Amino acid sequence: MIQTLLISALIENGQNLRIPNDYTWKFTLECSNCRERSPKPVVFNGIDKDSPGDNDRVSVNFYMTCKGCRRQATIDVLRINITEITGTSPELVPFATFECRNTSLVEFFPSDEFEITSTESDTIFKEVDPSDEWADYDEKGQVSVSIEEFNYKLD
Ligand SMILES: [Zn+2]
């Protein structure tokens, strides 16, 4: 199953809210077979790949065995930063896609690895957590850059 993470935010004086390829993803999951939910969020890196079991032909970003039904679940990050998140657009836009086998993404937990560029200069802010009413000052462009009302949806 292909799942899409959509996000929206009210951005002031900032453009191109984005994440790096090696972003650390954090989700709670639900088994597609027995509906068991992961008690804690699972964490995986967007570029580290591993082969579950002895099958070297399959390489994924995350795998686990369901505690309920013992089936193996895998997640692979297909694309990130699909749509540029810019300006004060409260509309949900596709941000990343995942290939999920035997599991589905239920909840997304953003980390402070987001980056955003000022609209008034080439200043880049790193280590941004968009879910936590973030704001900083762009000295070069002389504006404050902020992110509010972060929202997401998993489709
Ligand atoms: Zn299960």
From TrEMBL:
Pfam families: CXXC_Zn-b_euk
Assigned keywords, A-Z: Metal-binding, Zinc
InterPro entries (UniProt xref): CXXC_Zn-binding_euk
Cleaved signal peptide residues: none
PANTHER family referenced in this protein's UniProt entry, alphabetically: CXXC MOTIF CONTAINING ZINC BINDING PROTEIN
Record family assignment: Belongs to the UPF0587 family.
Name of this chain's protein: DUF866 domain-containing protein
Species assigned in the record: Fonticula alba (Slime mold)
